[in-house]
Specification:
mainly beta, 9% helix
Length: 183
């Protein structure tokens, strides 16, 4: 017997069942087009010329953050832009990508450690799985952090469901393929 009854049960459908400690657990999700992501996923930022960057899926964060350093504000045709560098791969400071983007906002963000930080906000195209869509990213020096990118709730909203027990559900890539993309 299902724990879901009535109209709610008709809108739900099991999409994934797996064995857990000898019993079958069925995950029920609404009948909407949402992909399942793990707690970390590979994604791309084509407008910044970043073919691969591993992101931590952080549902506790509202906005997404990108590791950036050497951030310099410039004015182009009367509009504020930023030029910055990115180390897109974890534990690899040899590969650096020079990037530039138009500033859409500046915000005071409280980090996970409780510190207030002034951050530039940019918009760029995110590719995650088969979807590509624009997201807002704050720029922050995340060098001491393990992940070079955090994907927050706003970037995931109405597009993905998060399975915190798994990672890289949208695909794994060989180190050789990733390194080839950065040459």
């Amino acid at each position: 017997m299902s724990i879901f009854h009535g109209n709610f049960a008709r809108k739900m459908r099991p999409i994934w069942a797996f064995l857990q400690r000898g019993r079958v657990v069925t995950i029920m999700v609404r009948l909407v087009k949402k992909a399942l992501v793990g707690w970390q996923e590979w994604c791309g930022l084509s407008q910044l010329h970043i073919p691969y960057i591993k992101a931590k899926i952080d549902t506790g964060a509202k906005t997404s953050a990108l590791h950036a350093f050497n951030i310099n504000e410039v004015v182009r045709q009367g509009q504020k832009w930023v030029e910055f560098d990115i180390h897109p791969l974890q534990a690899n400071n040899k590969i650096a990508q020079k990037c530039q983007a138009k500033v859409i906002d500046e915000r005071e963000v409280i980090s996970s450690t409780g510190h207030r930080e002034h951050r530039y906000v940019i918009t760029t195209l995110l590719t995650l799985g088969l979807l590509s869509y624009p997201i807002e990213l704050t720029l922050s020096n995340r060098d001491p952090m393990k992940f070079r990118m955090l994907l927050g709730r706003e970037a995931l909203h109405n597009k993905f469901l998060v399975d915190p027990a798994h990672k890289l559900l949208l695909g794994r890539y060989s180190k050789k393929d990733i390194m080839r993309a950065y040459k």
